Fold each of these.
Amino acid sequence: MANKATHPSSLFAAANYLRARRLGASNAVRTIACLLISLVLACTLLPCLPISSAFAAETEPEQTSEASQPDQRVVKVGYMQQEGVLARNEDGTFEGYTYDYLIHIAQFTGWKYEFIEAPGANDSERAVALIDMLANGEVDIEGGMTYSQSLAEYFEYPQNSYGTAHTALFVPNTNNTITQTNLFTRDNVTVSLLASSSMRREELVYFFEQNGINLTMIDCDSDEEMRESVLTGKADAFLDIDVNLHDDFHAAVTFAGRPYFFTAPKGQRDVIDAIDATIDLINRSNPSLQDSLYDRYFMQTKSDYSLTESELAFAAAHEMLRVGIISEKAPIQSFSRTTGSFEGATKGILDYLSSHAGFSYEIVKIEPSDNLAEAIRNADVDLVAGADNTSDVREELLLSLSAPYMSESKLLVYNKFVDPDNLGEKTMAVPWEQASLSEKGPNVVVYDTVEKCLQAVNEGKADYTYSTSYCVPYYISADNLNNLLTLPSSSQAVETCFALVHPVEPELLQIINKSIRGLSSTELDSIVYNNSLIDQDEQISSFIRDHLLEVALGFITLLLVVIALLTLYLRARVRAARSVREENQRFQKLYSLANEQFFEYSIKSDTLLISKPNGGQNFVASSAEDETDDKRPYFLVRNARKRLQDKLSPELADAFLSPQETVTDAALELDDKPRQWLRIMSHFVSDETDRPISVIGKITNIDDEMREKLDLSQRAHHDGLTGLLNWKTFQERAGRLLEEGKAGALLILDTDDFKLVNDTYGHLAGDVALQHTADAIGRAFRPNDLVGRLGGDEFAVCIAGPISRDKLVERCNLIIGNPVAFPDQNGKTQLVTLSIGGVELPEGVGISYETAYRQADRALYHAKADGKNRFFIECPDNDD
């Protein structure tokens, strides 16, 4: 990947766009474009384009379908090309973090995308044009936008972000002096950065001040100068955004994370709400997606975070770590309401540190106090879990922060009856640990936990509070808080760390940092996810405990209803059983009077009842090893399914056991009895829930009727003398094969000098000769080939399916080389020969019967003219 200049971000393009709107002059836009050139700040959260004319390209999810459904929505996406974020390849396909995330959204929504490039002669102009396109409604959405109150006046934002970008220190892939773990042990670090990077400069200074590291900065005018300063050893690292990729460099340390969002023009909430709901679904079903996409597109190298032998020895020899818990904020960390045990994502990380590094730990709960720093000291803990990565924690509490193990968005949580735009005089609920770090105002109410803050807002005791994107959904679900609404409150991500109490053991901090940094995003996500699920038993217990009276009344009511329904049901069943018994007795009398047999198969008991025929034949029961006595008017067959399936054909067995058709005509063939044709009329009987419980029907002997039909069918389609297909049937069936291109050849066969046979030996001998000829032709060809008598001494064969010329010649030679023998009127054997004319047909090419016959007849003429007792095969014409 080629090195590239840092592009102006959507954040600054959007900020200047707002400034231009307020100035209300076209000159302002040109001024902003110039400013953007100097503000080449690598907060590139929106896809950027190379210099080219504006164009639009459509693509669908996974680019596998050429036509969208009639009701498929087409969403226009504005973008600027940037490798790793959203880039159009030379073959017209797209790739990048934003593109992949859009594809995941489309899998839920069914959307189709039209990507529209922002025009402009340079990056600055394209950045401004991109924001204008969104504001003017030329596109439906854009990605990579950070949140601010000012931008929210002009654009619609979802609650959920789809990624986070960080300010980062880049070091060479080889021979680097800074890693994620040793940075905090360095006394001085030299960093090169762009002279125009004011915002990132402030973040860099703040980060180093909070970590107690001396910072030396080298101002540069270009990316190339920054990289060169590191390669020559003038600087230890250079400053950029982690989503900006540089060949032979990687981001060693990241900080100051900013979540970024998809945005839409003001008023287009439908698309934003759909995106918001879909991101929420993606976060629930695939919580590691953002991390995996980040790793795929932005993690160029992976440092070695394995612990050394000395570090493992240090951890093993270290005394048990006392881990203080200040705040309960499920699912990150909390104590079980039922068992009191510590649980949550933090416990998962502590267990990982214990197994990976060899530390042992104990949990120390720090009780609420007006002085948090003193409470931590009095608890005599080594570190505090679940600390926010803020300056207050570092400076006021004198704690050193580890690498973060969680990152969340900060949310404003307010009562649905409160206007979030007018919170100035409203009451804010604050958990005690946050209140101890700031001055209490007149409209601030302090509670012991985050959960109690949210409950207070839900009940109207407070108007709003602040929490995170993990805690809020958890407590809304667990505590059924239906009066809460949320909004993103900050572009900064809330990072959760371990805070080590001073004086800090450097080895301890380094081992914790390496262990956390060594976790892949998938492993870290798995630990967090597996320890963040709401315990189902606890949720049910909590609901019952909170609604004990309602649950008891509901249970009693349900029990009474069930008892009443069971009583009614049993009474109905008793009456129905009595009625069925009486009805069965009547029908059994009727069955005994009929020559047909009636039957009932019980699915539950697997028994078959078949009425005894009145003087007629027992068609089926004896074949299934029936059990009966003379006093009963029916045969009883137990284990009927297996017996019938063993004795009868599948078609007959299904008619008794699971009829697919109302009427089934099939032949009954038994080893010791001649074949008979039976007609079985049967259907399912269902209970009141439409569940089949039995099959009932009757059996009729239709042997005479079927034999007559089969005989008529045979006569209608076959020649009476030879048994071959008659000319009409042959023409119809061969014509279908020929027209569908499924015939390999059409042959016409004619006996040589057959008139002489009739004149010499008589017509009876001639008929015998024709019969023997038909048998010889039938034996020479396959059973699926069509063989027919066209009339007199002329026969025809239509080869079904493709056949090679060699095979066709072989079959014709079989007939020509073996004259047909037949007895004359005196019983003496005579011979008759055949001439064959045929047309070979290509596979898959249709031809009419008339054309094929005409060509085969012409070939027969050639065979006759060449001396008879031979064959002639033509290739097909195109005169059809």
Amino acid sequence: MNNPILAHRIKKTEYSQTLKQHEENTAALCQVFLTTCELDKIGYLSGILHDLGKAKSSFQAYLMKDEDTDEKINHAFAGAIYLYDHFYNLKNTNEVIQKCFIESVSLIILSHHSKLYDMYNPDKEMPFHSKIMTKKEILDYEESINTFFSIFDKRYLQTLIQEAVQQYQTLFLRMKEHVIKLKPFLEEQGCKKKNGTLLYFQLGLQTRLLQSALRDADCYDTYLFMNHPTLSYNILQSPYFEKNRLHIWETLEKKLNAYLLTLQQGNKQTEINQLRNQISLECYQAGEKKQGIYTLAAPTGSGKTLASLRFALAHAKKHKHIRHIYYVIPYLSILTQNAANLRDVLDEKDEAIILEHYSSLVIDDEQHQLFTERWDHAVILTSYVQVLNALFHGSKQNIRRMHQLTDAILIFDEIQSLPVSCKNMFQTAIDYLTEFCGSTVLLCSATQPFPPNKLNAIPPYEEILSHLKIYNEAFQRVRYEDKTQCIMHTDELVKAISEDMQLRQSALIILNQKKRAYDVYQELKTLLDKDYKIFFLANTMCAQHKEDMIKEMTAALQKDTKVICVSTSLIEAGVDLSFETVWRACTGLDSIIQAAGRCNRNREYEEGITYIFSDADENLSRLSEIARAKAMTLRVLKKFRDDPLQYDNNIASQKTLHCYYKYYYENLSAYKSESAIETDYIKKVGQGTYNLYDLLSENEQSIKQFSNDEKKQCVMRQAFRKAGDLFEVIPNATTTVIVPYGKGKNIITELCADIKDYNRINTLLKQAQRYSIEVYTQGNYYQDCFITIKDLGVMILDDGYYDKTCGFHMMAQKDGYFL
């Protein structure tokens, strides 16, 4: 061919990008993304080979068409097949490792425009093997190879492959050694995970990481060309790529220290404020520690959020390769409030520095995916759902984000809220990120889960506070009153609250279900006079609505007004409100202690009281985790009543909490439902039951179906796609719906217009995160409430179904249908 070999072309223009430039740009980005992980040579090789199939004449002709077409030409397989054909069966002393390497790199090239293919799956299929054996005539394979090597040096490529194999072998042996080092601890803990299982799981994470880097590099380079076609640049020297962020950490740390100094000067020098300053200082000093996994078990109300950020900024300055700090929250309800607070504290309005990402509002469009969020910001405020999806969910966009979890500090707030089903997968993943990917993890909670026997696959983590017992005793400001032996109906509960309020200034009531919270709210509104300010909070309200309500409540609590808030558990963490009393429907002891953190938070009262009561009218048949947690708490409360001295006369003592976690984890199988909650993530679909940890490691549930000859076809075993399709953090998938609250109305109006500007659409979807709720998509209940915006696939709520008091109309729901 006399014409240059192209990778991309903008239709109806003279702008094009050569295949050589795109392959080298993609390879260079992969190399940088994976340097700390010591996968840079492997990443570079995958970037060079990924689009080899574009060299054929049929693809070049396709690029030259100006009209839109649905034609699809496979260009992803050729590079993978070349690598597999020429290097898979080479004989050497480390044949198994080399085969594992070839399978891994071939797999990510095959899958770079799709989800990762399975090696073996429960449907008795071998997708990787069948794809790699695709007939070459169908792919115009020989033409692609010949043309490709007219622009790339074959000997240079062979050198790259040799270097990549050596790098993979070194890392493989290091990973194997790491797993062996864990063996004594695993045996001591009685953990059933074999060394081979852990090794396969971490090799699977490594393969997903390689695909993540390749996909992001490919999409990002394509994005830069499509939006800046006249710009000639070395991609690593472009203004869009930043290697070192030390200057950002130094600037943010100065702003945080200035804020803390102002705060200290403005606060009274009470004992509790002095202790908060001491905790903050300890966290700052801990930033000098080596990288690893740490815990922060500071008590509720001690300033964990800013203390953990202080640790992260100091740690990022110490370890200069750090590119990201993640602040990860389990509840969307508190993420938006914390995001706003952190922006104020850091005095940072630049959206290029701080990203808020907690919604699933994404347009499923190949063109738009070039523009969607890459998590390339310095500070990322997001949710457990988004991070767990980046690690395990099968969607292309989630896989693309995974590599941004390397070279990072990840702060997981309220770690006790991690879904039990994800526990083992999460622990193995953070071990991989900290051991092999240059990241540090901080697990924050006043109620740190007790490491249970037989269930913890990873060694204990180091606590960064050295005087925990002193802090816990000093922050005791609440008396717990156990009322669980008297089971209360709504009228009895409301009567007890109203009588108690004769002596109190404020109360927080937390129920286990939205419907129950709404029922109690309505009864209190009916019973009490207008002198009371009564508020309602639930996830039927969008984030901005909840934030506005919390601001109004904060102002009311500072006045001489009687205030009552009725809420679901969303208020239990990260919400800086203080009530004289808290009424908590019986649930897990960790949640009860978190709820008590909203009681007498700053010792405004001589004594705060947290009542624990049994709700006679709740229905937990669909909430198996809460039902199990409640049962274990009732068991602990009985033991406490029988012998309070054994638990230091304190329902919230570490001894009581440890007893609760011991019961909780020992009884994992006692409260099974259709959404099973075992720590390996067990999922039932139809007649099948799948263990996701197994699918992502040795995959025994699939392998046992194959003959011995078939088992020898592949060294790797994982069912990546099957596990990714099954994975969901919250059982029963939900859909994000934009609601007509405040500015949400304007966003809906603009989205309903015929917008073609993807940048503008992306901006609107980011703004819409604050004006969205999550709804279950199963069933046909009240489908008239929702409208799908044509072409975008985004759902909006009809204006008549949103209420300024309670959000989505409670009367338009069936119990348990909406989140």
